[in-house]
Amino acid sequence: MLTDALLLYLHLSAMLGLAVFLTAKTSLTRVGAVDAALLARLRRLDVWVWGSFAAVLASGLALVFWGVKGPQWLLHNPLLWAKVVLLVLMTAMSWPSTRRLARWELQGRDAAFRAPSSADIKQERRWLMAQSHVMVIIPLLATLMSHGFG
Questions:
Q1: CA pair distance 119, 125, nearest whole angstrom
Q2: What distance in Å separates the CA atoms of residue 25 and residue 22, rounded to the nearest whole number?
Q3: Is the N end or the C end of the chain the one with fewer CB atoms within 10 Å?
Q4: What is the pTM of this model?
Q5: What is the model's pLDDT at position 111?
Q6: Burial class of 81 by CB neighbour count within 10 A (0 to 12, 13 to 18, 19+)
Q7: Minimal CA–CA distance to 89: which of 44, 127, 46?
Q8: What tens digit of pLDDT does each residue of 80-125 get?
Q9: What 3-state DSSP class applies to 34?
């Protein structure tokens, strides 16, 4: 039971970390605010977002194989697969953001930093908000699973 509780704690902490880093990226991505220093900060946050994705996946796999419910119950639960699909969707939605930040960084390596266009910043923020909206469904599914649904 203690192992299961610790695995659940790690999984929840990983999800909270993902929420924190995604929220930080979203709050900093504003028209007129992106300069070279902020871009470097956004790139670091992006690395943390990807690390959080990995932590959510690793802790989730640990729960499946070492948790009390075990793979025989979890792997047949459609809610688990819905959570996996949503996490994969969020991960896929992060890829354009990572590429956009890398492109902005390359453009900013010139002697004079050129801020990204307002349209690019707004598009980046829309992607981040969309990810956040997908993410809020995952805890609902987790709650339903913890109460025996699925």
A1: 10
A2: 5
A3: N
A4: 0.91
A5: 62
A6: middle
A7: 127
A8: 999 999 999 999 999 999 999 999 988 877 667 788 999 999 999 9
A9: coil
